Amino acid sequence: MADASDRTCFENLYMFSGDYPHMKGGRNPLGRFNAPLEGFEGGVLDRFLADNMAELIGERS
Q1: In which domain, by residue range, is 54 found?
Q2: Is the pLDDT of residue 5 over 50?
Q3: Which of 1, 33, 42, 56 makes a 20 to 30 Å CA pair with 18?
């Protein structure tokens, strides 16, 4: 994932993925990614957690 200091052009590039049911992501994978994304404008966290995948599989345009 891009360093939080690099706030340009990555909101459409990355998406969250888990390793369910395995614990390789740790005990709190969402918390691990939410903290670096705090303070970003608009729906960056929404895009990372859901919208980018929905767009990839054709659920949204």
Answers
A1: 15-61
A2: no
A3: 42
